[in-house]
Amino acid sequence: MDCPHANLLLIFYRPDRPSDLSAEDAAALQTHLAGCPACAAKLAKQTAEDRFLSAAVRNVPVPSGLADRLKQQAQSQLKWAWRRTAMKYALAASLLVAGYVGYVAATRPSLDVGQLADAQDTLWQSPDRTATAWLTANGLTNALPEDFDLNLVTFTGRSGLQGVPTLAMRLDAPGRNHAWVYFLRPGDFNHSKAETGQYTSNVGVKVYRDLPNGWTAVVLYTGNSLNTFLRPPGSTI
After folding, report:
1. Which residues form the Putative zinc-finger domain (predicted)?
2. 128-182 tens-digit pLDDT
3. Which residues contact 204 (CB under 8 A, 6 or more apart)?
4. What 3-state class would DSSP assign to 163?
5. Which has more pLDDT, 58 or 142?
6. What are the phi and psi torsion angles at 160 (to 5°)?
7. What is the pTM of this model?
8. Element at 181 (helix H, strand E)
9. Which of 60, 68, 179, 194 has the greatest CB tally within 10 Å of its CB?
10. Where along the chain do its domains lie?
């Protein structure tokens, strides 16, 4: 190896730390330096300059408060990054909620008030026939516990009985008295402790067990007697 070649390799060679030279080039350079005082002196000068610059950099005074300012700046940038991330997630969540609300609005059944009005009008005009048809459709024809006057029926359908949707029929008699007839399927309630009686001064209860097809009927009525809601003797549907 000659001196020009050695001077070129010295640019990448530092004896006190790993170099970018291959093992073969490093070995050849070290052999040349051992026999060439000029190149060895150049390496010594280069090493001294590196150490001087390194010491000078380490001894540069740091401005007062610089570390705190850098820390605050880093924290501020970190908070902003978190804020942007949170905003992205919030936007995504709002879009999901909006999409779900739109889906529910598009798929839930529409309220047909015209149909409701027609059904109620039919019930008011022909309560006896409407009630009879409803009882037949639900298999309750033989489960009617009393000979109720079906002309007094103002509601047929499902009504909540202690939170459970239950087949029910309402009758309204003159004088603001009314009665609810609830039809319970086997297993709907544990009604072993339910008994007939006048539970308040204005509300009476009658319980009818062992009706056809296993039905149980519970009648709640206002007034002094259930007779107000029964069909007059000798009348027919």
Report:
1. 20-40
2. 999 999 999 999 988 899 999 999 999 999 998 888 899 999 999 988 899 999 9
3. 197, 198, 220, 221, 222, 223, 225, 226
4. coil
5. 142
6. -70, 125
7. 0.51
8. strand 178-184
9. 179
10. 3-58, 62-108, 113-229
